[in-house]
Every structure is written in structure tokens, then in C-alpha cells.
Amino acid sequence: MKLDYQLKKVEKNTKARLGEFQYLGKTYETPMFMPVGTQATVKTLSPEEIKEMHAGIILANTYHLWLRPGMDLVEKAGGLHKFMNYDGPILTDSGGYQVFSLAKNKKKDITEEGVHFKSHIDGQNLFLTPELSIQIQNKLDSDIAMSFDECPPARADYEYLKASVERTIRWAKRGKEVHKNPNQMLFGIVQGGAHKDLREYSAKETVKLDFDGYSVGGVANDHESKEDMYKAIDYSIPYLPENKLRYLMGIGEPIDILEGVIRGIDIFDCVSPTRLARHGHALTKYGKINLKNAKYKEEFTPICDHCDCYACQNYTKAYVRHLITANETFGARLLSIHNIRFLIRMTEQIREAIKNNTILEYKEEFIKNYYGDKNE
């Protein structure tokens, strides 16, 4: 049974949206941050811990699961939910971002049929097409599958981006034609860089294909500025249906989530919370801190006051710092729990602000706290 998204409210001062969908008898609200479980696991964490953080949708990566353990094995196991023992909703990306980063000669390796590239595991020559990407996701049996799109370089010229948008639309149509999982939503992806006309064209043509939801893509490559990211959203959103989910791919910086919500985005994902954790960084109300710093050696207080996560309820900055500096995995686990919960709790606060029509006041207070004077 497909997720049934319903738009409940638009905040009176902005385009921020409050929505919800039902899944296995449980109601999930948006805006929502989605933790990333690339290899069918959110790094270092159990499904039970993820649920304790009040996570909703989590992500898994089509490219990585295609290579190992393989789509047929996951299908034989009963699909991703049974394979990884997660009973909440799962979204799989198309594998496109990874594939395009592995394609060395863009002009040669990217063809109309698909993309040639080498496996990051053993260097084997591989070829991924829009049809194969969808077929893999059908077998993985996620709740939301993503169309296979071209991920153009951040600073590609206009003509390249125009051709890329056209190809992505053709690929979206091809993928939709082979999508055979009746219980799985399929999302289309809007591209076009920071060009208003390309975003409008991409959005309108993708919407004509009537997907179950839509993503604003091309904003999480290596070199986009925040200005270009916000332009990409602003230029795409007006042409997307109000009654379907809107997804900003690969974005997890707190201010970008907030700016995305204000512009009309519903769901976000990023690997950053766990990646930051592995390097000793914690997200806090007053900005990002590095617990490797010596000043935390005798800080016998929680990572964040008033945070309800397991790490903050049970451990101190001094202890977590000790674990991180001693290369103990438990330190990365505790910071992963905290960072993911921080972003999920932030979206909970954002939803309350939308309900109260106070999202701009929330933004002002957030910026004042997060980017104020810090003693790092």
C-alpha cells in the first residue's frame, strides 16, 4: 500500500507546509529529516535506536546494495524491511549520484542508454540504466523509489545543463514505464542548476509524467553555493503539485533545512550527522562543536542541555571526548544518536512553528543562537 500524503496546512507568512502520511497504522508528520542508511544500516546504530529518535523515513542506497549483497538476495530475504529489520518507511535513491561521481570521462561514459563506470569495490566495468535502477529498487521493495537522473557538475555551463535536463526527463519516462511495484511510490527529480528557465521547464515536464512525489535535485554536489541552492528551490517549487511530497536531496545543514522548509520542501536527507559524529563533531543549539578540543576534557555536562537523546540523558562531553580521542566506536555511536536526534527534534520544532504561524520568528531565534558568538 502506497504512502498517502496529505497537506494539512501552509504557514501564513511563508511557503512552509505541514503534512502527514499513514504507514502501517502510524501517522508521520512532515517536514521531516530522514537519516541515511547507505548499506541498509544507519552507521553504528540499530533499527531500535533509530526508532527511539522518532525517525520516520530512512534511506538506503541503490548503487551500494546492487553491488553487495545484491538485489536478488535482498528480494529473497523478503525486501529491505525484513532484511534490515526496520518496520518504518524506507526510501531508496537511484544510485545516480554515486554512479556519476565514478564516471571519469563524462562525455564518453554518459550515454543516452545509461552510464558506464567502474565499481568502487573491485574496478569492474559496470553499466547502469534508468530501467535497471528502477528494477533494482523494485526488488529492494522500498516504499519510495527515485528516478534515475543525470547529476551534472555544479558549475556546468548552460548548454550542458540544458541537455542534461532533457536527458533526465527522457530517463524519467523510461524508468516510469518499467516501474512494476504497486506498493512503491516513484518520485521524479527536477534538475536545471540555478537557471530559472531550466528549472521551470524541468519541473513542468517532470510533473506531466505524473509521479507520486517530486525531488529538487542537483543541490548537493560539491560546489553549489547556498544562494544557488535556494534559487534552485525557488525556481522549482511553483510548478510542483501541492498535494504531493517534495524532497530536497542530500541536504542536512540545519540552516538549509530551515530555508528549504520556508520555501516549501517537506523531506530532507543527509549523511552529515553520522559523518560529523565519526570526526567528533556535535550539533548543538549554539552551533557545531568539536569535542576533540581540549576545553571539553573536564566538561561534565551533557552535549546539549535540554536534549532528550540517549547520549545527552546519560553521558557527558568529557566522557564522549575521551571515547573519541581513544578511537572507541561507542563515542561515534553516541554522537550519531545525538546529531540525528538534533535534526529530527529541529524538524519537530519547525512543525510546531508552522502550526503556530511563527516560522519566521523561529528562524530568527535559530540564527541568533546557532551563528552567534562562539568560543570555538
Written description of the protein model:
The chain has helices spanning 47-52, 62-67, 71-76, 80-84, 96-102, 106-109, 130-140, 158-178, 196-208, 226-236, 254-262, 272-278, 310-314, 317-325, 329-355, 359-370, and strands at 4-10, 17-23, 26-30, 32-35, 58-61, 90-93, 115-118, 125-128, 144-146, 185-190, 213-216, 245-248, 267-270, 281-284, 287-290. With 376 residues, the protein is of the alpha/beta class. Helix 8 runs parallel beside helix 9. Strands 4-13-12-11-10-9-6-5 form an eight-stranded parallel sheet. Strands 1-2-3 form a three-stranded antiparallel sheet. The model has no long low-confidence stretch (mean pLDDT 94). 42% of the residues lie in helices and 18% in strands. The chain is globular. It is built from 16 helices and 15 strands. The chain folds into two domains: 4-270, Queuine tRNA-ribosyltransferase-like (TIM Barrel, Alpha-Beta Barrel); 277-370, no CATH class.
Classify the fold: give the CATH topology of the largest domain: TIM Barrel
User: What profile does the largest beta sheet have?
Assistant: 8 strands, parallel
Poorly predicted parts: none
Instruction: Quote the average pLDDT.
Output: 94
How large is the share of residues in beta strands? 15-25%
The chain-level structural class is alpha/beta
Report the CATH superfamily of the largest domain. Queuine tRNA-ribosyltransferase-like
* Spatial ordering of strands, largest sheet: 4-13-12-11-10-9-6-5
Number of alpha- plus pi-helical segments: 16
Q: How does CATH name the architecture of the largest domain?
A: Alpha-Beta Barrel
